[in-house]
Specification:
Blueprint: H1 11-34, H2 37-44, H3 48-54, H4 58-82, H5 89-103, H6 107-120, H7 124-145, H8 149-168, H9 176-182
Helix pairs in contact: 1-2, 1-4, 1-6, 2-3, 4-5, 4-6, 4-7, 5-8, 6-7
Length: about 190
C-alpha cells in the first residue's frame, strides 16, 4: 500500500497563500476601496508585479479573500454541527451559532464580511462572490441542521445582528437600546 505524504505546496501556491493572508489584514483595516495592491505586496514581502501575477487585479484579489473567508466560516460551521449536543435542528443551529460568534471575535474575518457587503453594492464581481458565499452557507446550514426555512432565516438574521453588535461595541454600552439588541446574543 502506498504511503500518503502531506501535500507540498509549490512556491507559487505558498506565495498565493501568503498574499491572501496578508490581504485579509490589509482589506480588513481599510476596506476594498482603501487598500492598494502596493500595500498588500509590501506587507507580503513581494513585488507588486508578483501580486499581479498571482491575482491579475485588485478585484480578483479581494474576491479571493472574500471566498477564503467564506471557506473559514463553512469549516467552523461544519465542526460545530459535528459536535452539536443533540441531533435536533435547534441543537445544530445553536452549536453553529456559537461557533460563528467565536469566529467573528477575530475582527479581521468580520471586517472582511462587512467590507464585502459594502463593496457588493457597487462592485458586480464582489456582489457575485458574496452571493455565492451566502448561497453555499445557506444550503449547508439548511442541510446540516434539518431546519425550516424560518429557522435558517433567523439563524442568518442573528448572525447579521452579531455583526452589528460587535462592530459598534454595543456590548460595551449599558443602555436600554443596547440591552434590547444584545438580549440572548452570545459573543466572545
Amino acid at each position: 500500500m502506498k504511503s500518503e505524504r502531506p501535500r507540498q505546496l509549490s512556491t507559487a501556491e505558498e506565495r498565493r497563500e501568503t498574499v491572501l493572508r496578508t490581504a485579509i489584514g490589509a482589506f480588513a483595516a481599510r476596506g476594498y476601496w482603501g487598500t492598494t495592491t502596493t500595500e498588500v505586496a509590501k506587507a507580503a514581502g513581494i513585488s507588486q508585479a508578483y501580486v499581479y501575477r498571482l491575482f491579475p487585479n485588485k478585484e480578483l484579489l479581494f474576491t479571493a479573500v472574500v471566498e477564503h473567508c467564506f471557506v473559514q466560516v463553512r469549516a467552523a460551521l461544519e465542526r460545530a454541527a459535528a459536535e452539536a449536543r443533540g441531533s435536533s435542528p435547534e441543537a445544530a443551529l445553536e452549536a453553529m451559532g456559537d461557533a460563528y460568534a467565536l469566529l467573528i471575535s477575530d475582527n479581521d474575518l468580520m471586517l472582511i464580511q462587512l467590507h464585502a457587503q459594502a463593496a457588493a453594492v457597487s462592485e458586480p464581481a464582489v456582489r457575485e462572490a458574496v452571493r455565492q458565499g451566502y448561497a453555499r452557507l445557506v444550503e449547508y446550514v439548511r442541510g446540516a441542521s434539518g431546519s425550516t426555512e424560518g429557522q435558517v432565516q433567523e439563524f442568518f438574521a442573528r448572525g447579521m445582528l452579531c455583526h452589528l453588535i460587535v462592530s459598534m461595541g454595543a456590548d460595551e454600552v449599558d443602555a436600554p437600546w443596547t440591552r434590547t439588541l444584545t438580549a440572548g446574543i452570545r459573543h466572545f
